[in-house]
Amino acid sequence: MKNILFLSILFTTFYITAQEPTYDAVRKNEIVSNKLENSKETLNKPYVIMVSLDGFRFDYAKRYNAKNILNMAKNGSSATRLIPSFPSKTFPNHYSIATGLYPEHHGIISNSFYNKETGTRYSIGNREAVQNGDWYGGIPLWNLAQLQGMCSASYYWVGSEADVNGMHPKYYYPYNKQTPYEYRIKRVLEWLQLPENVRPHIITLYFSLIDTNGHKYGPNSEETKQAVQYVDKQIGVLRNGLKKLNLPVYLVVTSDHGMDEVSHLINIHDYVNVNNQQFFAGPVAMIYTKDEAETDSLFNKLTQQTNFKTYKRAHVPNYLNYNDNPKIGDLVLITDPPNTIINSQSDKTELKQLEGTHGYDPFENKNMGAIFYIEGPDIKKDYKLSPIENVNIYPLIAHLLQLTINEPIDGKFDAMSSVIKE
């Protein structure tokens, strides 16, 4: 059986590779958004490469023997578990890492949501919305750097395609899931070999494979193990490339959330009637109502069942930091694994294909835990942080790049400062 699986993976890899565009063709998609050059004051400052491994659960490295990432823990510092912001979904958490803000403060409150004030919807599959900077609050790291005379680059990250604060990273790519990971690594290393006046000091990089396999096959599957080991190999290539450059580089490897098994579907229509336009499904579901009377009516019906907890927006528990933004649904429904909430038979058919999901309360569900590894010139070796919230990454990176944070954020530098050598 193992031989059959290996041959299947080998054939699939060969087939996909045969269909891939050349590196030169992919590179032409890069956008150079501005003429910014590094100021004289920034030329001697260090560099930070921040890599996100979407869906990399806190225990995957040891469990699936991710050798390069485990070596980062010995050569640098790491967290026993990185606690995602709520809800533990991809877009909110990538943007929380990038801004140091909870979703209720930066505005990307879920992968899909509704703005009642404007009558518009945000969805990760809607390219126009994803690229519209009006949805995004805060000052992402690439903008923080550029506002202080430092070039930045992004090979994918939530928000990097949008004109946030009227800016993009100096170098960035429109998202294309099919771009080979080897190409992405190659381009990051090339960016670091540009002339120092236009060389980016902060670079973000994103890989989705582990999340994709975690959803399709589950966190305990052979396919997820293979994805972890493949992506870990790419981290090894990146680390080896960085060593050859002789630059003061900090490498951060992190993730947005973990993954848990899902096997039971709760249909909201078993309790109330809502239409698709006002309902957003998932482990954390939301209902948008037309008025307070409808909110009260639905709330009274939903609180009579025990399969999930129902809150009016203002009463979502404070520890979740999810009750202070009008884009959050009027009603927030929170369930636990192995449950997820759906809103139609068609959803039920689709979800039968999924073995894993995320979005659950990260403080109650350990399996939502993500990763944080860092190595570089002034980072302690073989040092371990206790579980820590992901909003604290932002002030740490700002400190390493010697950038000043002028706007309020939720993250605290002191929460992670112990990773720095005294």
TrEMBL record:
Q: Name one GO molecular function term.
A: hydrolase activity
User: Which Gene3D superfamilies would you find in this protein's record?
Assistant: 3.30.1360.180, Alkaline Phosphatase, subunit A
Top-level taxon = Bacteria
What is the protein's given name?
Alkaline phosphatase family protein
- One Pfam entry for this protein is Phosphodiest
Origin species, per record, is Yeosuana aromativorans
Annotated InterPro entries: Alkaline_phosphatase_core_sf (IPR017850), Phosphodiest/P_Trfase (IPR002591)
Upper lineage: Bacteria, Pseudomonadati, Bacteroidota, Flavobacteriia, Flavobacteriales
